[in-house]
Design brief:
Blueprint: H1 2-43, H2 51-59, H3 66-101, H4 113-127, H5 139-159, H6 166-190, H7 193-204, H8 212-231, H9 233-239, H10 243-248, H11 253-275, H12 281-293, H13 297-321, H14 330-351
Length: 354
């Protein structure tokens, strides 16, 4: 009997090692695909370059020629890396929102955070209103950040009220979306022609105004927050089993939700404040990661990072090739990709519990 138990335990360990190795291989394959997508993104534009030229400009910029070096390093690389950092940030934010709210439809876009950021940006673009008076020079991104944080904190504190269910939180998020969209429409109605054009362009989402400073800020927020999530990887995984089971395992569910939502709010608000409204990345990225590596946060979190980055990087490539000579707003492309996935997700959840 003892030998059989030992053999069963050894078999279980072998199966787990094989599963972990398979997940690592999947993550490695996704990372390679992301590297290729970044290179292709930098190669495409009004003047197309070959991948060998891009590689030459990256490895030895001093010998690649001034024009190629400037185009790759000063123009295209910030855009390509902004797509990576924004995609990863939104995907991780969506992944942890889905985890702590136990809802597959939770994301910065569906819970009204992106709509709140759009309204905040429009306040600056249309009325010249700076919510934080000390940041007039950066009033558009600062306004967007503050309003996004307000929406995220409202969602969190609403979730802590007695009797509030997960379905209620999603409905509150949808209500926020409609509320901020209505307020945004009112501002657009009152705006001048020039301000209206600026608001419409901002709400479509675009990476074309990416700079190295914005890349560094979004990357820094991502680098700081990921270890905080990884430190709570076991607790977040346990939370997927339900509040009662997680609590029985020693998880302080209320404190974990509070800390996670605060970090998620920051992670979702910063990218949106820089690039505008980019929907569905925070919804689609986590679900792709969940399908390929499962729920274990040790693999799911890196998977969400890579899937979100790959999704937005690939979208950036698509935005350049759909209409030759033009770069389409990236938020439009993500919506075209995300809406069919959204419908598939809704109908699949009618047949099975999430």
């Amino acid at each position: 009997m003892g030998a059989a138990a030992i053999e069963t335990g050894a078999t279980g360990r072998d199966q787990y090692r094989a599963l972990a190795f398979r997940r690592i291989l999947i993550l490695t394959g996704l990372a390679v695909a992301l590297a290729v997508s970044i290179a292709v993104d930098m190669a495409l534009g009004p003047a197309n370059y070959s991948l060998s030229q891009v590689l030459s400009a990256l490895v030895s910029p001093e010998t690649s020629g001034d024009q190629l070096r400037v185009v790759i390093w000063d123009i295209r690389m910030p855009i390509a890396l902004m797509a990576v950092t924004v995609g990863a940030s939104l995907s991780v934010a969506g992944a942890q929102m889905q985890t702590i709210l136990s809802n597959p439809l939770a994301s910065p876009f569906t819970l009204g955070i992106s709509a709140a950021a759009s309204f905040g940006a429009a306040l600056g673009l249309v009325g010249g209103v700076a919510i934080f008076p000390g940041a007039v020079q950066y009033m558009v991104p600062v306004n967007a950040f503050i309003m996004a944080m307000v929406a995220a904190l409202f969602i969190h504190f609403a979730s802590t009220l007695r009797g509030v269910t997960v379905e209620t939180i999603v409905l509150l998020g949808i209500a926020l979306v409609f509320t901020f969209n209505a307020a945004l429409s009112l501002l657009e109605y009152l705006a001048s022609e020039q301000a209206l054009a600026a608001v419409v362009f901002w709400t479509m989402g675009s990476l074309t105004k990416a700079t190295w400073d914005k890349v560094f800020v979004t990357a820094a927020i991502l680098v700081v927050t990921l270890p905080l999530f990884m430190r709570n990887a076991w607790a977040l995984t346990a939370l997927r089993l339900g509040d009662d089971k997680a609590a029985s395992m020693g998880v302080n569910v209320r404190r974990l939700r509070l800390h996670t939502m605060l970090i998620v709010s920051l992670l979702a608000a910063i990218p949106v404040s820089f690039v505008g409204t980019i929907g569905f990345v925070g919804l689609v990225g986590p679900h792709i990661a969940r399908m390929v590596v499962g729920e274990d946060q040790r693999f799911f979190l890196p998977g969400a990072v890579i899937c979100g980055a790959l999704l937005l990087s690939t979208t950036s490539v698509v935005s350049k090739v759909l209409i030759p000579g033009a770069i389409l707003p990236i938020g439009v492309i993500t919506a075209l990709v995300g809406v069919p996935f959204f419908f598939v997700l809704i109908f699949s959840n009618r047949r099975r519990a999430w």
